[in-house]
Amino acid sequence: MQERFISLFKETLEMEGKNVQPGDLFREYEEWDSMGQLSLIAMIDEEYDVVIEGKKFQEIQTIAQLVEAIELEKTK
Amino acid sequence: MADITYSNIGIIGLAAAVPANTIKNLDYTQYFDAASVAEIVDKTGIRERRFAEQGTCASDLCFAAAEKLLADMDVDRSEIDLLIFISQTGDYRMPATAVLLQDRLGLGKHTAAFDINLGCSAFIYGLSVAYAMMNSGGFRKVLVLDGETRSRVYSPKDRKTAFLFGDGGIAALIGKVEQAGNSYFSLHSDGSKESFIKMDAGGYRMPSSPETLTEKVVDEYGNMRSDEHGYMNGADVFNFVLAEIPKDIRNLLSYSGKAISDVDYFVFHQANSYMNDYLIKKMKLPVEKVPTSIASFGNTSSVSIPLTIASQLTTEDCKNKYFLLSGFGVGMSWASCIIKMTDCYIADLVEI
């Protein structure tokens, strides 16, 4: 799941060819901005049928935590 | 759940008025550089908007649309028993703008008139109120006027909202239509999300003061506004729309016993192309059935649904057609309806 997510994440933020690791603080990426956030929300909805609540999303710092949050929503 | 059915009521005429003053977003660069503006235009799909001249109110746009509609259709004004004005940008704190419009339009004192203040979902809420009152049997015709001057609500120095909003007004005439059959409405609200789109000051909770009028930097991006400007958290709104709107539409279709293929036109609140395109894709709707006016008029809040119909469809297009309308936004408040237009006159767009 994590590997596939990272590949989708890179595609969504137009970061193909860049090194993205599970522990990365994605908000610090140069490519991260408010439109990037919308694209990420859309991708997660489309690929995983999951919507992460705004407040919860604000607390998420790393790629790995994003994957965890999606998995948690999935089990609901 | 607020699911409602009304019978044999329909929209028989629709006119829209917009300011002639056209703002081209790519040239709207006094506060932001051309490259970032171009990127915003590309993502939001909003190329132009209309800004009312100083002194022109939402009610003036509605008045112009109503005069056009009533004249074109040769409507006997004495038959209008109810006037509803929908807006969050009315003339005064009091009296209600609907009452002023009753007099300006030369309607009789028998006319019931009141305002509905709600935002992007308000046209559907307003239609529902009009249909319900028509269904009570005590009303002959209802005039629904819906106008906004959203250009004045948001700060031009806040890039989250500076390029989105525009002004417009519509007039819709509602009457008894035997062939309209059943109309289906679903109405919702979630006040726990009040901070998603909001204007903090200027009401009685936070009255106007020199402090509330002071412009300040509000985030790490350097966006500036005062407490009397509206603000919006786009990501929260997007999340909300993805979670609630497809669900609401599926429920309404099932409540009405109709399938996507039974609907001729899906008209959504015109928020921005990015969100609306995603909704269309997510719900697998045929794009040719989804008219849009976002590129020309931007987000006009409650006006955007009827403005899209009035500016993109003709009288002929609307003959015996099923419409699914869905509005969502500030509140958060959202509403959808499935209505049949049998013979609705669509007037030419008025520019003032």
Structure notes:
The complex is a heterodimer of chains A (76) and B (352). Chain A is mainly alpha-helical and 76 residues long. Chain A has a single domain (2-75), classed as Orthogonal Bundle (Non-ribosomal Peptide Synthetase Peptidyl Carrier Protein, Chain A), CATH 1.10.1200.10. Helix content of chain A is 59%, strand content 0%. Chain A is built from 4 helices and no strands. Chain A has helices at 2-12, 34-48, 54-59, 63-75. The longest helix of chain A has 15 residues, at 34-48. Chain B has 352 residues and is of the alpha/beta class. In chain B, strands 2, 5, 6, 7, 8, 17 and 18 form a 7-stranded mixed sheet that branches. A 5-stranded mixed sheet of chain B has the order 1-9-16-15-14, with helices on both faces. In chain B, strands 3-4 form a two-stranded antiparallel ribbon. The chains are: A mainly alpha (76), B alpha/beta (352). The A-B interface holds A 34-35, 37-38, 41-42, 45-46, 51-54, 57 and B 39, 43, 160, 196, 233-236, 238-239, 242-243, 274-275, 278, 282.
Considering residues with a beta carbon less than 8 A from a beta carbon on another chain, report the largest interface and each chain's count.
A-B, 13 and 16 residues
Instruction: Give me the strand/helix succession of chain A.
Output: HHHH
**N-C termini distance of chain A:** 17 Å
Strand content of chain A: under 5%
What is the CATH topology descriptor of chain A? Non-ribosomal Peptide Synthetase Peptidyl Carrier Protein, Chain A
Instruction: Return the structural class of chain A.
Output: mainly alpha
Would you tell me the overall average pLDDT of chain A? 89
